[in-house]
Amino acid sequence: MTISRSERPIPHMRPGIWSWLFGTTFGNAFKLLWWSLFAICASVVIEWVGMIWFWGADHSRQILELELTYLSSYNKNLITGLYPSDLGIHFIGAASELVSFLKLREISHHLADGVVSGATQIAIYGINSLVNTIFIFAVRSAICVSAITGFVLVGLVAFVDGLVERDIRKACGGIESAMLYHRSKRLLTPILFLSFGGYLTAPVSIHPTLVFLPVMALFALALFVTAKTFKKFL
Fold first, then answer.
1. For residue 219, what pLDDT is reported?
2. Using CA atoms, how far apart are residues 100 and 89, in angstroms rounded to an integer?
3. CB 140 within 8 A of CB 200
4. R_g of the chain, CA atoms, integer Å
5. 118-172 and 178-201 are packed helices; what angle lies between their axes, rounded to 10 degrees?
6. H or E stretch including 170?
7. What integer pLDDT is reported at residue 9 of this predicted model?
8. Distance in angstroms (rounded) separating the CA atoms of residues 62 and 136
9. Quick one: which of 60, 40, 64 has its CA closest to 50?
10. How far apart are alpha carbons 5 and 84 in whole angstroms?
11. Is residue 220 in some structural domain?
């Protein structure tokens, strides 16, 4: 049976180096920007719903004060040589510029100077919580950036230890498990995104150590299993 030229399968063309470079740099930058905007919007919605139904109007301000306390309690990062508080100052400065650009404080003062009704008071509380949420996101972003070095360290140790275990398994003729390798590999990205995303949008204040230490241990375990169960022969 002869297959015509139109019925032949078209080979899949791999993206070129420029497409890969654009996707790696600008593509990831835009993804990070949109993800940050989504995290801020999700935090604002959670705060507004909680402000109306669960907690009072000062909840976001109290969370911001606690987050600033956590940020100032950390010592200098041994890898970057920076204090998280110094990094937080730059992030807070960027957040202040964003608030000034959006004229949020001016809008709140303008509403407060007018006739204050029930809806107006809720709008004022909502704008104030929006301002506080933006600053909370800035403070938590500084903590997340500082925590990245911890993930790099534990990941490096786990990866090297996993490769050593792989070489031992290769030399001793151990059993190879592709299923375990693929499942542990697929856990790496969700662990990172869910931990950072959950921390940035959390409606309550949680000490960063209680958040990131268990996640680092889980990330190191997944990376160790991935490196250990990697195929014996390339």
1. 92
2. 16
3. yes
4. 24
5. 160
6. helix 118-172
7. 54
8. 10
9. 60
10. 62
11. yes
Q: 3-state class of 220 per DSSP? A: helix
Q: What is the C-alpha separation between 147 and 141, in angstroms, rounded?
A: 10
Tokens of 149: 């070095």
What is the spatial distance between Cα 158 and Cα 41, in angstroms, rounded to a whole number?
A: 35
Round to whole Å and give the CA distance between 57 and 49: 11
Q: pLDDT tens, position by position, for the chain (234 residues)?
A: 454 555 555 555 555 555 655 555 556 566 667 777 777 777 778 877 777 777 777 788 888 889 889 888 888 777 777 788 888 888 889 888 988 888 888 887 777 776 566 677 777 777 888 888 889 888 998 888 888 888 999 999 999 998 888 888 777 766 666 778 788 888 888 888 888 888 888 888 888 989 999 999 999 999 998 888 887 555
Residue 8 is predicted with a pLDDT of 54
Residues recorded for the chain:
234
Give the count of domains, the chain. Answer: 1
CA dist., res. 192 & res. 220, Å (int) = 11
Single-letter amino acid code for the residue at 116: V
- Dist CA 67 CA 69 (whole Å): 5
Q: Is 80 within a domain? A: yes
Identify whether 61 is part of a domain: yes
> Which residue range(s) make up the domain with 181?
34-228
Would you say residue 170 lies in a domain? yes
Spatial separation of the C-alpha atoms in residues 230 and 30, rounded to whole Å: 32
127 close to 111: Cβ distance less than 8 angstroms: yes
Question: What does the block give as tokens for 77?
Answer: 């990062």
